[in-house]
Q: What sequence folds into this?
């Protein structure tokens, strides 16, 4: 078989894209024909170079995590706003724990009583009623979020921005500062509060 | 449970047709979207833009009921339209160059770090490859991109609408042209 092969067939041979018969025939021919062998080597070298260059395109930066992302992150901002809105709605819609109920009752009780009594002693009673009300307002639980310092993600000063709390089930929530252009600028982990904010 | 009898009046048949078309789009989306985005991201260097392009392609597909009802190889259609759009975007998108310059500047700022030079070189090489791809005939650029994404000759032929037997020839020519232009622009440092 001394037939010379066209360039396209030699190129397909390089990729193993000929039929098994043709692969064998071309291989045998390359052993005999210096011109085809030269063409084959040339095609092979070029294909390798081009493939190497094309593979450099694989080094596109993959999407970075939210807190490292530098530009074009309006989608993240929108997502964060949506999450925040969802949580806000959830806090409104979720029924309040029954613990709160007794509080107004406890407050109303003494007040109702004080109204029935002659207005002589209210000096003390009226003072007590607000005090009772205040003690029920669950102040201690409000003190839980302990502000951790924010960790800046870049060197630029932060002039304005919004803070979003991002919660991932099973891990501690984080506060993220977004500047108006949508970039994440600073972050802090929120310890000790899983749902209260 | 007994299957219900379905009366195939024209309206029902139309609805069933829509349903099947939607299902076909969805299954194609699941199968190919990720790969297409990856391929376009390699081409354009911009992942968000690639997601937009890929979504547009599937939207276009969903708007083509006749195509969806046909027995055509829709994967080939999707790859063809997506790479076409990708090459167009690469040519038209002036923002890309700005991003790349910013990225390169950012890399330079990090020059103290050990990997900074590698990153810079890789970014520069990718940028060169893109600029040469942009200058090629769109079909050549598509062919090189699809081939480097791992498509076999038969798939390449389907996607580009050429004879399978001519893929080797087209590929050899596209590579030769790519190499020639690369050398012309950037010297011998291929």
A:
């Amino acid at each position: 078989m001394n037939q010379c092969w066209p360039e396209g067939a030699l190129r397909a041979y390089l990729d193993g894209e000929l039929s098994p018969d043709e692969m064998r025939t071309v291989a045998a021919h390359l052993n005999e024909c210096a011109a085809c062998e030269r063409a084959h080597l040339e095609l092979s070298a070029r294909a390798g170079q081009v493939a190497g260059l094309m593979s450099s395109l694989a080094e596109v930066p993959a999407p970075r995590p939210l807190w490292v992302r530098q530009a074009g992150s309006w989608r993240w901002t929108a997502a964060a706003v949506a999450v925040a809105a969802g949580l806000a709605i959830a806090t409104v819609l979720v029924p309040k724990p029954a613990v709160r109920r007794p509080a107004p009752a406890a407050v109303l009780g003494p007040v109702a009583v004080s109204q029935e009594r002659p207005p002589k002693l209210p000096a003390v009673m009226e003072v007590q009623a607000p005090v009772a009300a205040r003690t029920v307002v669950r102040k201690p639980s409000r003190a839980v979020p302990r502000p951790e310092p924010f960790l800046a993600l870049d060197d630029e000063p932060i002039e304005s921005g919004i803070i979003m709390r991002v919660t991932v089930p099973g891990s501690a929530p984080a506060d993220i500062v977004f500047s108006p252009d949508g970039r994440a600028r600073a972050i802090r982990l929120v310890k000790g509060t899983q749902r209260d904010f | 449970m007994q299957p219900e009898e379905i009366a195939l009046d024209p309206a029902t048949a139309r609805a069933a047709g829509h349903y099947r078309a939607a299902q076909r789009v969805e299954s194609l989306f699941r199968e190919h979207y990720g790969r297409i985005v990856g391929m376009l991201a390699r081409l354009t260097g911009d992942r968000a833009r690639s997601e937009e392009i890929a979504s547009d392609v599937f939207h276009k597909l969903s708007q083509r009921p006749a195509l969806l009802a046909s027995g055509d190889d829709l994967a080939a259609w999707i790859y063809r339209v997506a790479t076409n759009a990708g090459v167009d975007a690469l040519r038209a998108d002036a923002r890309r160059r700005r991003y790349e310059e910013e990225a390169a500047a950012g890399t330079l700022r990090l020059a103290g770090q050990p990997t900074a030079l590698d990153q810079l070189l890789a970014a520069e090489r990718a940028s060169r490859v893109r600029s040469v791809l942009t200058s090629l005939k769109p079909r050549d650029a598509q062919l090189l991109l699809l081939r480097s994404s791992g498509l076999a000759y038969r798939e390449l032929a389907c996607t580009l609408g050429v004879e399978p037997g001519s893929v080797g020839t087209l590929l050899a020519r596209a590579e030769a042209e790519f190499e020639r232009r690369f050398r012309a622009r950037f010297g011998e440092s291929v």
About this structure: The first strand of chain A starts at residue 151 and ends at 152. The beta strands of chain A are 151-152, 162-166, 174-178, 184-189.
